[in-house]
Write a structure and sequence with these properties.
This protein is of the alpha+beta class. The protein is built from 5 helices and 6 strands, in the order ααααββαββββ. Helix 1 crosses helix 5.
Length: 142
């Protein structure tokens, strides 16, 4: 469960994609909103694009994971394990290049209705050039 939780908390593709072209000038809070929208669509490609190629993810399950491709792969695994995974933002605030999000991950393990999951999560993102360069995510592993 814990590894999967980390997967849903994190997220991204570097390079000259449509995200890069359309969002390079996006403010930090808009970039994080795009990350959550991509998560709720289960769009791993978009998640990969939102993260910088040298982004870092730190969470209870992933200590210093580096790169948008490995980060995006965590989401792919999460969506495989929780096919109805959804993040509901409760609080989203920014200060300069930093964005702070409190949200709840919900869904069902392996899509089974008798295996619900609901996890409160707090994440601090650092955004530069419309991409997430750092993602520090916190949640209870129980």
């Amino acid at each position: 469960m814990t590894s999967l939780l980390t997967l849903c908390l994190c997220g991204g593709l570097a390079g000259g994609s449509s995200y890069a072209a359309s969002q390079a000038d996006a403010g930090p809070i808009e970039a994080v909103r795009h990350k959550f929208a991509a998560f709720n669509r289960h769009d791993v490609g978009a998640i990969e694009e939102i993260y910088s190629s040298r982004a870092t993810l730190n969470s209870p399950d992933y200590r210093n994971l580096v790169g948008n491709k490995p980060i995006a792969e965590t989401y792919r695994k999460l969506f495989d394990s929780i096919p109805d995974a959804k993040d509901e933002i409760e609080l989203l605030e920014s200060a300069g290049k930093h964005v702070y999000a409190q949200f709840v991950l919900s869904g069902h393990w392996n899509g089974l209705q008798d295996k619900p999951i609901s996890v409160r999560i707090m994440a601090a993102y650092t955004v530069r050039g419309g991409r997430i360069i750092e993602d520090a995510t916190y949640y209870d592993r129980k």
